[in-house]
Amino acid sequence: MKLRAFWASTVLAVLGAAGPAAAQSSSVEAELRRCRGIADSPARIVCYDAIVLPRAAAASTQGPTAAPVPAATQSSASAASAAPPAASAPATRDFGLPERPAALLPQYIESSIEGEFDGWTAGARLRLANGQVWEIVDGSTASYRLRDPKVRISRGLFGSFFMDIEGVAQSPRVRRAQ
């Protein structure tokens, strides 16, 4: 809670909330609080993007403190929250590729490694049943004898990905190669 108050005060300080802009800054603060309360990530981002900053409002002739969210944006945000991210084919196809907005992609994908799986060595590339190729990047090695193991690749921190293989105790760090 203290961290939220800190960020709100920092945003207001950066926006120059002194003097005549104080009324606008309290409106911006109210909008920030409202956006913070939205649980759905895409809808929350749309809410934050719709806030007009005080300096921008003073420069515009309209003068509102928050721009209304376009209906098309609202419907796309609600559509994104209605369908589970793992079910959408384009999002799954782009999972793990660089320069894709992480907020719009699923937190994990599931597939399998077809045929015999004998483990991996550092730098090995594993082809999944969905056509994606993932490379082991953490320098680990493992030896297993499995047939058609299921795989779950999950997001980690700072853009990393980890591969959980059914029947394997380790979860190597991986990078999407194809």
Give a verbal description of the structure.
It contains six helices and eight strands. The protein has 178 residues and is an alpha+beta fold. The chain has two domains: 81 residues, no CATH class; 91 residues, no CATH class. It has a six-stranded antiparallel sheet, with no helix packed on it. Strands 2-5 form a two-stranded antiparallel ribbon. The two termini are 42 Å apart.
Tell me, what's the shape?
elongated
- Total number of helical segments? 6
Q: How many domains, in number, for the residues?
A: 2
Low-pLDDT ranges: 17-21, 56-87
Give the DSSP E fraction (strand runs of 2 or more residues): 15-25%
User: N-to-C terminal Cα separation, in Å?
Assistant: 42 Å
Please state the CA-atom Rg, rounded to the nearest Å.
22 Å
Strand order of the biggest β-sheet:
1-6-7-8-4-3
Q: Please report the total strand number as a whole number.
A: 8
Taking the sheet with the most strands, its summary is: 6 strands, antiparallel
The average pLDDT score comes to: 73
Q: Give the ordered list of helices and strands.
A: HHHHHHEEEEEEEE
Which percent range fits the helix content?
Answer: 25-40%
Structural class: alpha+beta
